[in-house]
Amino acid sequence: MRFFSFPVLVISGLALFAGTAEHGFAAQPLSVASPSTKIPLDEAPPPSSIDGTAEGDDLEQLDKRASETLDSLFADLKRQSNQAAANRISKKIWNEWNGSGSDSVDLLMLRVSKAMEQNKSGVALDLLDHIITLAPDYAEGWNRRATLHFAMNDYGKSITDVERVLELEPRHFGALSGLAVMLEKLGKDKKSLETWYKVLEIYPANSQAQSNVIKLEDKLSGNPT
Q: What local confidence, expressed as pLDDT, does residue 58 receive?
């Protein structure tokens, strides 16, 4: 389970990055066209090629090492109060999340990114559906689809995908940030605030969470800024 970042692009008020991994959902820029844009899957590898490069005990060892690495990074992130230093740690976490452990899934994820860049939301959605079928325990597949549903203004489907991300990785501050944004858009300010608190428990130096906590606390106390 892993992720990444780049220049900022704002979609419906949510900043999505491809390298700076501090803000909502995916650390990757998105640009989305009509969800009706449908193109057949392009050279998608068959399910039989999902094996990747490791299997059996080797795969278990890889998973164990990845888990230990993430635990260490999250411990460092929780202790870090300096935003620049914390952002460097968060990038490493995204890098861990991004790797699926399967060459086939990683290739499909690259095609998702390309489809998004070309405003082919239908293609991206088809690919993500395929990825989730092939690798249902790969959190970034669900997270990227949640991002796409958000960009299509389908908050219900996005929230459902976020819930699955959080089942797989409860510390996913990107998915939690995206959820908090949607809850506020749906008028659920108290739940949004509670979700931002969860982000800060995991990532105390997250500036987006800090500013939203201040804003929502003021709003709920009757003193909007």
A: 62
CB 130 within 8 A of CB 60: no
pLDDT tens for each residue of 171-189 = 999 999 999 999 999 999 9
Give the CA count within 13 Å in the CB-facing half-sphere of 94: 28
Query: β-pairing, 14-16 with 9-11?
Result: antiparallel
Contacts of 220-223 spanning 24+ positions with Cβ under 8 A: 220/189, 220/190, 220/193
What are the tokens at 100? 């699926």
Contact 195, 179 (CB under 8 A): yes
15 membership: H or E segment, kind and range: strand 14-16
Between 164 and 17, the more confident residue is: 164
Closest CA to 49 of 124, 121, 105: 105
Mean pLDDT of 187-194: 98
SS (H, E, C) 105-146: HHHHHHHHHHHHHCCCHHHHHHHHHHHHHHCCCCHHHHHHHH
Number of H helices and number of E strands within the chain?
Answer: 9, 2
